[in-house]
Specification:
Elements: H1 4-11, E1 17-18, H2 29-44, H3 49-66, E2 73-76, H4 79-89, E3 95-99, H5 104-113, E4 117-121, E5 134-140, H6 152-162, E6 165-169, E7 186-190, E8 202-205, H7 250-266, H8 268-288, E9 301-304, H9 311-316, E10 319-320, E11 322-324, E12 327-331, H10 338-349
Parallel strand pairs: 1-10, 3-4, 3-5, 5-6, 6-7
Antiparallel strand pairs: 2-8, 7-8, 9-12, 11-12
Helix pairs in contact: 2-7, 3-7, 4-5, 8-10
Length: 350
């Protein structure tokens, strides 16, 4: 019988201590094989219809992961493109509430409009800052810079009380943090971090009524019958969120299909328990060394002030972390072990 440990060890054999999933997740062996097979199909001139079918399997897998009907999931290439669609749907003067120093791909589309009122508040105050007249609250479920978690239930209730829509960036959450995307109006996430896919993909969850969005990026794949929508205007848009699809990067989706199958086999609850236990071990070790990490209880990301400058030397020693705004950021995922945590702690004590 396969266990969490045996499944993971069969998929990963990193040459270094890799603690940088918040930047890029490692590719499972099954993912590498799937991408290589897709490349061979193209190189050998074989029919690639199965690669398009794979996009639909990925869509369904993500829908299961975040607990929504597959009809609510669109597939694209970046979080920013979907933020742009939301920004374009808002009337001039609408208030958008965001958190201080949230990730640029989430917040920048609203600033680019120029005629929206973008209000920025500390993350811990975002729920209490929703007010009458707030049109949209846009926030990352987990902050990229330091791993802090947004209080999503409180935000959801505050938004409902004031009639505001909610837009959640789950790029640093999907794959390790259990999510209920149906509790929010819009949710976006890239697939190359905790979902461990190749670059070139993003998911977008819409309300059943599409939230007033216009599919400005719609091409042939956005048609109800895509292969009959290749020429001239698309006469019938998809009846589902697929109307917000952009033409898929087929190699990426071939890989993601394999990566999501691994998460499905392990179970996101098991991944969550594994990742957060390692992060807690690192926090405790930092305290013993006299360092105080930025508070982020329950997060798989740990950020340590004033240690970011040590990233180059750690990389030279075979330990991969990030330097974010002068902070050392370590991100723990299913392929990490307690030995990885202890190696980083030992290096920091030197």
């Amino acid at each position: 019988m396969e266990t969490f440990e045996s499944l993971v060890r069969a998929e990963f054999a990193p040459e270094h201590t890799y603690l940088n999933t918040a930047s890029n997740g490692l590719l499972p062996a099954r993912t590498v094989a799937a991408v290589q097979e897709a490349v061979r199909m193209r190189a050998e001139g074989r029919p690639i219809g199965s690669l398009y079918e794979g996009v639909e399997r990925v869509r369904a897998a993500f829908a299961r992961l975040v607990g929504v009907p597959v009809e609510r999931v669109a597939t694209g290439a970046s979080v920013a493109e979907y933020g742009g669609l939301i920004a374009a749907s808002l009337p001039a003067g609408a208030e958008v509430l965001t958190a201080e120093a949230d990730f640029a791909s989430l917040v920048n589309p609203f600033h680019m409009r120029g005629d929206l009122k973008v209000r920025v508040v500390p993350l811990e105050r975002i729920a209490e800052s929703v007010r009458p007249g707030t049109a949209l609250v846009a926030v990352s479920a987990v902050q990229s810079a330091d791993g802090r978690l947004a209080d999503l239930p409180a935000l959801r209730e505050a938004a409902r009380a004031h009639g505001a829509r909610t837009y959640i960036d789950a790029s640093q959450a999907a794959g390790w943090l259990p999510l209920e995307a149906g509790s929010y109006d819009f949710l976006a996430a890239v697939g190359f971090k905790w979902l461990m896919g190749p670059h070139g993909n993003a998911f977008f969850v819409t309300p059943e009524d599409f939230g007033g969005l216009t599919p400005l990026l719609a091409g042939w794949v956005a048609g109800e019958l895509p292969w009959e929508s290749c020429y001239g205007p698309v006469e019938e848009l998809a009846h589902s969120a697929r109307r917000f699809d952009v033409s898929p990067s087929l190699f990426t989706y071939a890989g993601l299909n394999a990566s999501l199958s691994l998460i499905d086999e392990l179970g996101v609850d098991a991944v969550h328990a594994h990742d957060t236990a390692l992060a807690d071990r690192f926090r405790a070790g930092l305290t013993d060394l006299g360092h105080t990490p930025i508070p982020s209880p329950g997060s798989a990301i740990v950020s340590v002030p004033q240690l970011g400058h040590r990233q180059p030397e750690l990389s030279e020693a075979g330990i991969e972390v990030s330097n974010r705004a002068g902070n050392l950021r370590a991100a723990f995922h299913l392929y990490n072990t307690t030995a990885d945590v202890d190696r980083l702690l030992n290096a920091l004590s030197a």
